[in-house]
Amino acid sequence: MTRAARTLGVSQPALSAMLKKLEAEVGASLVHRTARGVELTEAGRVFLVHAQDTLRRADGAVRAVRQLIGLEAGSIRVGAGATATSYLLPPVVSALRAKHPGLRFYVRETGSSAVAAAVLSGELDLGLVTLPIRGPGEEELLKTPLVEDELRLIRRREGEAKRRRDGVKKEAGPATFRWKDIEGEPFVAFEAGTAVRAIIDQAAAAAGVTLNVVMELRSIESIKQMVAAGIGVALVSRFALEPGEGQTCREAKLTRRLALIRRKDREPSVAAAAFEREMLAAVRSTGA
Fold first, then answer.
1. How many domains does one find in the chain?
2. Average pLDDT over every residue of 131-159
3. Which residue among 6, 24, 169, 284 is least packed, with the fewest CB closer than 10 Å?
4. How far apart are CA 229 and CA 27, in angstroms?
5. Can you give the pTM of this predicted structure?
6. At 228, which CATH number?
């Protein structure tokens, strides 16, 4: 009893009193004294098994809560458009998974307005959107600008398919275009209602050009494949292109600002905060 009291950091009389109280509660003697000290009674051995199981469960409960709020087995729900989902998210998710293999990700690819609505409703923790965000509840969102993106014109070049088959390096084309250059040409567009489509339509209208839209798609890779197949020309993010690929609008660059959003009134989880830091670090490292 003396050694046990010393281990627990209490006096021996205090420990004896606690033991007597416990025996009174369970209605049985838990230890009996011998010349060598104390030994568990049969009732004491039964009680010990259940007490140890209770302590293990308590420790497991603490670990489960820590995993829920931390990085051991947390989850991140994020929404983004086609550009961010295809080109910005993969390296960030990869870096976080390398540091914290237990993290789980739920990624929803949809337009900026839908992403903002899902963040506001709590369906998503974070979102990557095109600014500005307009709509009910917009003032409740914390917006962290990330990077400026440029939309560049891509078109199929004569003999491009043959050059790819022969392994010949792609020839450099004109670095710029005018809106009048593509007036009347078949145009492969992002679907109507998206933030990118609105930027393109507004810029074309300002230049007095009506685009000849022959196809609408959400996927950037699908748009690029349609252009490569000769369906038409298109405007896509610079992140989807090789350095120097695509043409810049000569009248005025077509740009947009991408931002990370979350609710102002909700403290991000440890996992979501780690995602924010990793995304910001990735943007800074590219100098974008």
1. 3
2. 90
3. 169
4. 85
5. 0.70
6. 3.40.190.10
pLDDT at 100: 87
Same domain, 184 and 195: yes
Name the percent of the chain lying above pLDDT 90. 69
Burial 206-241 (b: 16+ CB within 10 A, else e): eeebebebeeebbebeebbebbeeebbbbbbbbbbb
Measured between alpha carbons, how far apart are the two ends of the chain, in Å?
A: 68
Q: Which two tokens stand for residue 160?
A: 């491009």
> In what helix (H) or strand (E) does residue 284 lie, and over which residues does it extend?
helix 270-286
Interacting residues of 15 by C-beta distance below 8 A, sequence separation 6+: 1, 4, 5, 8
Q: Last residue of a domain, which of 53, 69, 85?
A: 69
**32 shares its domain with 80:** no
What are the phi and psi torsion angles at 228 (to 5°)?
A: -60, -30
Give the pLDDT confidence score for residue 287 in this predicted structure. Answer: 57
SS3 label, residue 266: coil
User: How far apart are alpha carbons 203 and 205 in whole angstroms?
Assistant: 5
The DSSP bridge pattern shows strands 126-131 and 75-80 to be parallel
CA distance linking residue 93 with residue 20, whole number of Å: 57
